[in-house]
Each structure stands twice: as structure tokens, then as C-alpha cells.
Amino acid sequence: MRPKTEVRERARELRRQGRTYDEIVAELGVAKSSVSLWVRDLPRPARRAHARTMAEARWAPHRRERGVARQRTKLAAAQEIGRLTERELFLAGVALYWAEGAKSKPYAVRETVQFVNSDPDVMALFLRWLELLGVGRERWRFTVSIHESADVAAAERFWADLVGVPVGALRKTVLKKHNPRTLRKNVGEGYRGCLTIYVVGGADLYRRIEGWWYGIVVSAIQAGR
Length: 225
Fold this sequence. Notes:
By secondary structure, the chain is an alpha+beta fold. The chain has helices spanning 4-16, 21-28, 32-39, 49-81, 86-100, 120-132, 152-163, 203-223, and strands at residues 113-117, 140-147, 174-176, 194-199. It folds into 2 domains: 4-39; 86-223, no CATH class.
């Protein structure tokens, strides 16, 4: 039997070559716990190109099939909605605001209508809801919030186009400081930050939203009795 130090050095050499724990165990005939102890200070090897290629070949058809099934389900569900009535849009807007919009608190009474989101579809629905309520465009104000490391100008153009105003009509963009130690996933061309929509003189509207939401809750509870 080879000396333990020799086995340990061989295990470390194999690990540096990118071998897995199981491969080292199979070659040296030692316990996996021993291998783990011997090589724990070494960097974890990257997956070898061949292994990645084999994994991709194995899973690609499954991912394509799953993607097709997912899209088919989404399209079928979308068709179930049909054309919204004004009342349905009204109720959807109330629920959307109460889930995502700014709300007054007992310790900080702020009766303002302010809505923040990063989803363009959500923002488009919210603006359509404001139109339904008769809240004119002259009362809308917009502010973009985005990390300073992103393409700020492109984000401003995107949101301005979405809401139908020139870029110059947006309020000053709020820049979030970039922390390189934070691993963010919201990066790349699709990252456009968030848009804040603020309604000027919205105190009365906010109170009505609170009342509408309370009415929805009470009605839903009563319907379940």
C-alpha cells in the first residue's frame, strides 16, 4: 500500500487536473471524506468542455419541448381572458395598485398616488386604468430609477416612448450606486430600471382607491360565506 502522504499528493494532483471527487475516489480507492479533506483548499474545477457538451446534447431537446409546452399554455390562458369590460379593468387596476402602489401608513400619512414597477406591461395597464378613471395626462409625472452602471439614456428613451412623452418631459433620473460586490441578475440590454408614475393632486383619488380595495375585500369575504 502506498504511503498516505503519497496518496494525498496524488489526490491533489488529480484535483488540479479537474477531476471530480468520485473520479479521484475510483482511481485511488480511498474514502470520499478523505479526498474532501485533502483537497478542500484547492479551487473547485470548472466543468470540462466535453461534460458541458454532453449535458447540453442531453437536455436541449427537453428544454425545447418544455418551452413549446409553456408557450402553448400561455396562449391558451390568454385566450380565456377575452376582451375586458370597463368594470373588469377597473377592478384589476384597483388590485394592481394595492399590490404595487404606494400606500399611506398610520405612522406616515401620505395620501399620494405613486406607482413603481419595472415591467412595461404592468405600467401600460396602470396608465390605461388612470385613463379609465378620467385622470388626465396633464396630471401624470414620470421618473426613471436605474443603476448608474446601466445604459441610462437608452432606459430613458424606452420609458418615454412607452408612456408617450418626450425624454425631456421626464423628471430627473434617480441613479442607484453600483456595488461591484453585489451579484445582480437584472443586467444586460433588457435592464431598463424602474419607472415611477406620480399623479399630481392625487389625495382624493388615493382615498377612493383605499375605499375601492376595502369594498373588494368585504365583497369577496361575503361571497365565501
